[in-house]
Structure formats: structure tokens, C-alpha cells
Amino acid sequence: MARVTVEDCVDKVPNRFELVLLAAHRARAIASGSPITVEPENDKNPVIALREIAEQTVPADDMRESLIHSLQKNVEVDEPEALSAPVLPSDRRSPLLGRDDQSSDNVVDVLTEEQLLRGLESLTPTEPSAAIGGNGGGRSGR
């Protein structure tokens, strides 16, 4: 193939915008040392990338996944499985908040609506704050 044109690649990657993204990503990968899968023929990296897409020597799906991975900011980290770490015996575990005494663990606090309202009323200030509408809400001195 002497010259690569978009028409050579468009039947492999129908979306031209995606074709540009994939070819640019592949050209950057070649520049950073990725092995070339076609004869270079003294071509520049973008032309080599387009030739690889046209000849399908590098699968477009692999390039697509590599591009997506390179653009991701939050990389998923595999968490260790629950059973991979040994579980400490209960006598060596640190106490959990609200679960210090196992005998009181089954007691549930009940608060009625009236008790809640009385508690909230006791928290409200009886005098209006000077910072909030201290001058009666109107304009002063004009």
C-alpha cells in the first residue's frame, strides 16, 4: 500500500472521529516504543498507525480499550476478597461504635414525635439574633 487514505480505514472503523482518535492513540503508542506490526517503509507514526488499522494487524477493539483505559482518571483497584485475610477472634477485635457492650446491643431507643418536638423547641433561641434582622429587616438611614 503506497498511500493510506481514510477510505482504506473507514470500512474497518466506520466513525471518522473514532478513527482519528484510535489512529492518534496508536501513533502515540508507537512513539513511546510499542512494536510496529507493518513494514515502516520510512513512514511517520500517524501513517503507520493508519496502515495498521487498514490492514487490521492491530485489532480496533484492543486499540479502543487501550484508549479508554488511558483516558480514565479513576482506575479500578481490585479489593482483596473477604476470606483472604484471617478473621481475628472476637476477644482481640477492637470495639465497634455502639456495640461495646453486647448485652445492651439488643436495646433500641424509642423517641416519640412529641419528645422530638420538645427537644427541638428547647434548642431554639428565645431572642432574635443581632446578626439576623437586627434592624427590623428594613433599610437604615436613607
Secondary-structure map with pairings?
Elements: H1 6-10, H2 16-31, H3 45-55, H4 60-71, H5 113-123
Helix pairs in contact: 2-3, 2-4
Summarize the structure.
This protein has helices at 6-10, 16-31, 45-55, 60-71, 113-123. It is mainly α and 142 residues long. The protein has a domain at 6-71: Eukaryotic RPB6 RNA polymerase subunit (Alpha-Beta Complex), CATH 3.90.940.
Descriptive report:
- The protein has 142 residues and is mainly α.
- It has a domain at 6-71: RNA polymerase subunit, RPB6/omega (Eukaryotic RPB6 RNA polymerase subunit, Alpha-Beta Complex).
- 39% of the residues lie in helices and 0% in strands.
- Helix 2 crosses helix 4.
- The radius of gyration is 34 Å and the shape is elongated.
The CATH topology of the domain at 6-71: Eukaryotic RPB6 RNA polymerase subunit
Radius of gyration from the alpha-carbon trace, in angstroms: 34 Å
State the secondary-structure class: mainly alpha
Indicate the CATH architecture of the domain at 6-71: Alpha-Beta Complex
Average pLDDT rating: 77
User: What is the CA-CA span between the terminal residues?
Assistant: 84 Å
Percentage of residues in DSSP E strands: under 5%
In DSSP terms, counting alpha (H) and pi (I) runs of 4 or more, how many helices?
A: 5
Largest sheet features: none
Which series of helices and strands comes N to C? HHHHH
**How many DSSP E strands?**
0
Helix content: 25-40%
Shape: elongated
CATH class of the domain at 6-71: Alpha Beta
Uncertain segments: none
State the CATH superfamily name of the domain at 6-71.
RNA polymerase subunit, RPB6/omega
